[in-house]
């Protein structure tokens, strides 16, 4: 019975099916999906979409003033205490005025120029107590920075004051702002790098392009298969015949 290949194959398949059946039975009858009513965790209040509100001319004027004070004092770092006064409590959370005055502010520094401060590219959203803006800021000449857009949110306080609640640089635009001397030096370095490249291009002799030999891979692979496949088939049959002969010899001796 153990010498029969068919019997051994059936034994393997039947054993596998029995094991799978036991596993499925145990998974169905002994698993516990839990009770959704007993889920642990903090209760989260349902999100309420803020109501859209028109961005009035008076609000724009107040927002423009707070935004100008924040960019000049905090982002450009000219007067951190001034930026502290127009920042919302959430932005100042975990920090002190002294830390702001020492430059330890939760604001990415940027050398903003005194040009167009307090203005914005467009209004992203306008709610009753908050407004989201995209602000375009110019760099100071010679700072080496490019112009920048930033996302900013301001929130309205109970006393009617608008404070900066969020500030995050978004992307940079155009070449960096260089002084006259920096620009002259950059142009000189560019010309100096271009001269050796032109000289090497002129001195290097022309070489015709060489044809790639990658196309030979496919014919070589096909020719290899012509040899490998028959050889593999021969080896498989030879091994099977050897096993059958050995099995027949053992059964004859018994």
Describe the model.
This protein has about 250 residues and is α+β, with helices and mostly antiparallel strands. The chain has a domain at about 55-175: Nuclear Transport Factor 2, Chain: A, CATH 3.10.450. Helix content is about 50%, strand content about 15%. A hairpin with a 3-residue loop joins β1 and β2. It is elongated. The relative contact order is 0.08.
Task: Compile the SSE list and pairings.
Layout: H1 5-30, H2 57-75, H3 80-85, H4 89-92, H5 97-101, E1 122-126, E2 130-137, E3 147-156, E4 162-173, H6 180-203, H7 217-253
Antiparallel strand pairs: 1-2, 2-3, 3-4
Please outline what is shown here.
Helices cover 48% and strands 14% of the residues.
Keyphrases for this structure?
single chain; 254 residues; 4-stranded antiparallel sheet; Nuclear Transport Factor 2, Chain: A; alpha+beta; 4 strands
Task: Find the structural class using helix and strand composition.
Answer: alpha+beta
Query: How are the strands of the biggest sheet laid out side by side?
Result: 1-2-3-4
Largest beta-sheet details: 4 strands, antiparallel
- Overall geometric form: elongated
Number of strands: 4
Considering DSSP H and I runs of 4 or more, what fraction of the residues is helical? 40-55%
Mean pLDDT: 79
Rg of Cα set: 39 Å
């Amino acid at each position: 019975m153990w010498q029969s290949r068919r019997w051994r194959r059936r034994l393997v398949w039947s054993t596998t099916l029995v094991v799978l059946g036991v596993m499925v039975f145990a998974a169905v009858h002994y698993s516990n999906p839990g009770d959704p009513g007993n889920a642990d965790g903090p209760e989260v209040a349902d999100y309420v979409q803020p109501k859209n509100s028109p961005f009035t001319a008076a609000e724009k004027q107040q927002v423009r003033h707070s935004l100008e004070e924040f960019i000049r004092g905090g982002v450009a770092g000219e007067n951190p205490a001034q930026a502290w006064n127009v920042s919302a409590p959430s932005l100042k959370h975990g920090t002190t005025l002294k830390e702001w005055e020492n430059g330890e502010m939760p604001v990415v520094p940027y050398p903003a120029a005194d040009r167009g401060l307090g203005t914005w590219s467009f209004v992203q959203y306008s709610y009753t107590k908050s407004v989201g803006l995209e602000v375009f800021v110019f760099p100071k000449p010679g700072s080496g920075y490019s112009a920048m857009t930033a996302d900013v949110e301001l929130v309205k306080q109970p006393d009617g004051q608008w404070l900066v609640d969020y500030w995050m640089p978004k992307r940079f635009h155009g070449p960096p702002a260089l002084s006259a001397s920096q620009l002259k030096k950059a142009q000189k370095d560019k010309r100096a790098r271009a001269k050796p490249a032109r000289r090497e291009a002129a001195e290097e002799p022309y070489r015709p392009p060489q044809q790639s030999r990658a196309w030979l891979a496919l014919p070589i692979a096909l020719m290899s298969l012509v040899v490998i496949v028959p050889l593999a088939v021969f080896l498989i049959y030879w091994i099977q015949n050897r096993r059958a002969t050995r099995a027949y010899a053992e059964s004859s001796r018994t």
